[in-house]
Design a protein that fits this description.
Helix content is 40%, strand content 18%.
Length: 574
């Protein structure tokens, strides 16, 4: 995709999934950057209302309480400061103060963050390209009074600040420099003539990075990597070549497949679900995972292993049924163009990269797509593979039961409901960001906003954790509640789709009614706000016995005075 195609996107009619306000501030001209970002947002069905601040007015826009930025109150504030302007500021700094240059810049950025929080805005901040000024040569890398030393320290401190600060996110321009080189990123001629920094060729790349960060916070994220095996996960064909002759390990082209496996394992360790869809005999396909000493991926790393002679479309559909996640959260890797095209045609929501012919180029190409942008990471993420393997066992066991109730009873499910704690807060925030299908109002919280919400005495957050004889699901649902006189309003109700059709909705409502009564409430009010992804729960409140509000058709009311609890096959953990 080039700049002109992004520009043409602005003339397209489309049905937006999301509408957001974005302010763009820069110390160089940002017109082309603004166009590219708005154009790429269309690709993600995001409609942006953009305020582009006057050139080089970043500090003024933040500090002036009657500025257009303050009046606009954007969802996101994008700040781009060029390393060329940073260098100018450094040169104007007294020699005695240069060792504190990066530290002082961070303090200024902290002031921006404080103002953004007052506006209810998040900040997207570009880190800096690192371009040596040639004043000290190689010695600059170890000399605190050099520009490159301070620039590197600033980038390090920016990363630290972002890791500690909610609502402040880095657009990693520095990693793009290492990938493409400064001459591809920066147009020196355009910078001199028009004070525009980015080349036209680079604008689509950086626009994608900006929208990736925003999209993932809207719940548009990849959760699953599905791997073909022959000539994708290893070189050769296991059924023909045998376990001793597939290409894997430290020699020749085998190194490329090994690097791909290491990358996949890192994804698994941060919570991405790994699955296999391969045309193979299962016991033969499993041999490398079980017996090959140079295999990085092991059988335990794979949540769902589909090796048979069905087509890939059918196997991916089976994987989706087991995982119960959206097709749009899946990525499928296959070296065979025919297989890729079959999946694209029949499962258009699945992301299917067109891998290069040369396996040595696989990983560089995949990484250039930035498929697995993360919203956050918790310590529980590395347990996800185990949880989905347990779910596969449940699905298999279900086939032995003739009716649903008998199967549910056999699971011996037990659930613990408890108010939000310091331990559960990060997981609740992550579930809020990741849940799309079972999400009644699509109100999302990061850790800081959830902390603020739950500290309000009129608010309550309740989490639900489930386990059964096959294992521990972990934290799978949360209620966000607001007491309004004698009514308890459900600000949001979210649940992992892994526990659909287990009776958790009814169990949760039983607990909610008991809680509402202890709060002196006689009614519970829920609301369903439709999105392109949550049609699954459009009848949720009606199915649970709520009555429609006669004046607002999005609201549902449950009189709990004579509430009769639902019968469920879930025990309460006290």
């Amino acid at each position: 995709m080039n700049f002109n195609s992004l520009k043409k996107n602005l003339k397209k009619d489309f049905s937006p999934k999301h509408q957001l306000k974005l302010a763009i501030l820069g110390d160089t001209a940002t017109q082309f950057l603004s166009t590219a970002i708005a154009g790429y947002a269309v690709e993600k069905a995001i409609k942006l209302d953009i305020y582009e601040a006057p050139y080089n007015q970043i500090a003024l826009q933040f500090k002036n309480p009657i500025s257009d930025l303050h009046d606009f109150k954007p969802n996101y504030i994008l700040i781009f400061e060029a390393e060329t302007k940073l260098k100018d500021d450094f040169y104007k700094t007294a020699a005695s103060e240069r060792t504190s240059f990066a530290e002082n810049k961070i303090e200024t950025i902290k002031e921006y963050i404080a103002t953004a929080k007052q506006l209810g805005s998040n900040i997207l901040y570009f880190n800096f390209c690192e371009v040596d000024d040639g004043v000290y040569g190689n010695y600059a890398a170890q000399y605190p009074e050099s520009f490159i030393y301070q620039c590197r320290q600033l980038n390090f401190e920016l990363g630290k600040l972002a890791s500690e600060t909610s609502g402040f996110y880095l657009v990693d321009l520095l990693s793009q420099q290492s990938k493409y080189g400064i001459n591809f990123i920066k147009d020196n001629q355009l910078l001199i003539q028009a004070d525009m920094y980015f080349t036209l060729d680079f604008l689509p790349i950086i626009a994608k990075n900006v929208i990736d960060i925003i999209s993932v916070r809207l719940g548009d994220l990849k959760k699953c990597l599905i791997l073909d095996l022959d000539n994708t996960t290893w070189g050769g064909i296991i059924g023909d070549d045998g376990i001793n002759n597939i290409q894997i390990g430290g020699l020749g082209i085998g190194k490329a497949f090994t690097k791909l496996q290491y990358w996949a394992k890192e994804l698994k360790n941060r919570g991405i679900i790994l699955c296999v869809a391969s045309k193979n005999t299962e016991n033969i396909a499993l041999e490398p995972f079980q017996l090959h000493q140079e295999m990085v991926l092991k059988e335990d790393d794979i949540s769902v292993f589909m090796a048979n002679w069905d087509n890939k479309v059918t196997n991916i559909q089976k994987i989706q049924e087991i995982l119960n996640i959206g097709f749009d959260s899946m990525v499928f890797l296959d070296d065979n163009p025919f297989e890729r095209e079959m999946v694209k045609q029949n499962l258009p929501l699945v992301t299917v990269p067109d891998l290069p012919e040369n396996p040595a180029e696989y990983l560089n190409y995949i990484n250039s797509l930035n498929l697995f942008e993360a919203a956050n990471v918790t310590q529980l993420d590395n347990k996800r593979t185990v949880q989905y393997k347990e779910e596969a066992n449940r699905v298999k066991a279900k086939t032995y039961f003739e009716n649903e109730d008998a199967f549910l009873q056999s699971l011996a499910m037990a659930c613990k409901a408890e108010p939000i704690t310091a331990f559960s807060l990060p997981r609740i925030a992550q579930l809020s960001l990741r849940s799309n299908q079972f999400n009644l109002r699509t109100v999302r919280f990061d850790e800081e906003s959830l902390t603020n919400y739950s500290s309000n005495p009129n608010h309550q957050v309740i989490s639900f954790s489930l386990k059964d004889k096959y294992g521990d699901y972990g934290l799978i649902a949360a209620l966000f509640l607001e007491k309004r006189a004698k009514e308890l309003f459900i600000d949001n109700w979210i649940m992992s789709c892994r526990v659909l059709k287990r009776g958790m909705e009814k169990f949760t409502l039983n607990h909610l009614v008991d809680f509402a009564k202890t709060m002196g409430c006689d009614k519970i009010v829920g609301e369903y706000l439709p999105t392109p992804k949550n049609a699954l729960v459009k009848d949720h409140y009606q199915d649970l016995g709520f009555k429609p509000n006669t004046t607002n058709d999005s609201l549902w009311i449950l009189d709990i005075t004579n509430y009769q609890p639902f019968e469920v096959q879930i025990q309460t953990i006290i």
